[in-house]
Amino acid sequence: MPFEHIWCAVPVYNNKDTVKAVVTGCCSVLRNVVVVDDGSTDADVAALLAGTGVAVLRHKKNLGKGHAILTASQYIEAQGGIYMITIDADGQHYPDDIKKFIPLIHEGDSNIIIGCRDFNTDNVPEKSRFGRKFANLWLRVETGLEIDDCQSGFRAYPVHYLNQLKFKGSRYDFEAEVLAKAAWAGLQLKTVMIDVHYPKPEERVSNFKPFMDNLRLSLIHSMLVGTRLLPLRHKLLVTTPRKKELSILRHPGKFLKTLLQENSTPEGLATAAAVGTFLAILPLLFIHTFVIIYVAARLNLNKVVAVNVQHFFMPPFVPALCIEAGYFIRHGTLLTDISFTTVFSQFSDRLLEWFLGSLIIAPVGAVLMGGIFFISATLIKKRRQR
């Protein structure tokens, strides 16, 4: 692919101290660079970059990083560009690492390439390490894909496909949403290792608002998981050859081995156990197993763990506990007589109380069981690595 079809996009919001060095570095690697000033108030970005030869687009007010990326993408496609490499303006990434993306860009025009940050460096915040693992888990649930660093903003997008997708998020939540929806649309997600620079805490500047941005991320992931649970086919922008699935009749041994090994990381096993526990406690009369298998399949969870964890919550103890909790919610006292008569002759009341109680017991049980599986799987993994 000719270099003139590859652009660099730099979304900027109040990064006056670092943006010029980042843009200059990008210009040393790529001929075409566009900067989107997302309503900065600390400097006149266009004046700051005068003489660099880059195109500067401006939002009159701050619309969010995701909106700035889409503004750049639409502009680049209009200029005949095919790929857009986005890089943050805060100096966290090294523009020279753009060169690492080029070989993967040449492999095809429908790959999204994510720069996987090397955290073996100084001053990496613990919240960044945790956030990275947590975000990776969400993406695995939503798409079944294992990506080492789906929070990195250093990425390459094929603009033709990106501009066809519809998004709800426009800020940091966009970067989570775009990967899931791109994967659903048939685009390939690939990674490349990049270096990263974290200033000392007292020198660090971040536009991430912990409460609002974490709330937005939680909402977008809830929406993605909810969409994933619906039995709907997503519109494919790219058709990829489907993998042959193992037949349980022709290859029962291989089939069982595949089920046991799918999403077998500590995080994956814990999530499967938590989801299986939550559903097992709900009053899904006679259909627990079917619902658990469906949800586990849609969310790419380990089906063996999700299905078998329900055996810990078989009647009568857990349903009775839920009924007691639900009865207390309704009447403010405990049901002192749980018998055949009080349960089955007043079944509609007990079913309502079971449901109400399960809304309390199920989340608690899911957290406890997920924690047990995570700790156990982590210890076993460490023991095997010795």
What does this structure look like?
The chain is α/β, with parallel strands linked by helices. The protein has two domains: 3-229, Spore Coat Polysaccharide Biosynthesis Protein SpsA, Chain A; 252-385, no CATH class. 50% of the residues lie in helices and 11% in strands. The chain has 15 helices and seven strands. The protein has helices spanning 19-27, 45-48, 65-78, 98-105, 126-143, 159-162, 172-184, 210-229, 252-261, 266-281, 288-298, 303-308, 317-331, 340-345, 347-385, and strands spanning 6-12, 32-38, 55-59, 83-86, 111-117, 155-158, 188-194. Strand 1 (6-12), helix 1 (19-27) and strand 2 (32-38) form a beta-alpha-beta unit. The longest helix is centred in the last third of the chain and has 39 residues, at 347-385. The two termini are 46 Å apart.
Summarize the topology:
Elements: E1 6-12, H1 19-27, E2 32-38, H2 45-48, E3 55-59, H3 65-78, E4 83-86, H4 98-105, E5 111-117, H5 126-143, E6 155-158, H6 159-162, H7 172-184, E7 188-194, H8 210-229, H9 252-261, H10 266-281, H11 288-298, H12 303-308, H13 317-331, H14 340-345, H15 347-385
Parallel strand pairs: 1-2, 1-4, 2-3, 5-7
Antiparallel strand pairs: 4-6, 5-6
CA-based shape: elongated
Average per-residue pLDDT, rounded, comes to 85
- Binned, the helix content reads 40-55%
Number of strands: 7
Which parts are unreliable, with pLDDT below 50 for 5 consecutive residues or more? 245-249, 255-260
Largest sheet: 7 strands, mixed
CATH superfamily of the largest domain: Spore Coat Polysaccharide Biosynthesis Protein SpsA, Chain A
CATH architecture of the largest domain: Alpha-Beta Complex
Compressed to H and E, one letter per element, the order equals EHEHEHEHEHEHHEHHHHHHHH
Strand content: 5-15%
Task: Provide the structure class.
Answer: alpha/beta
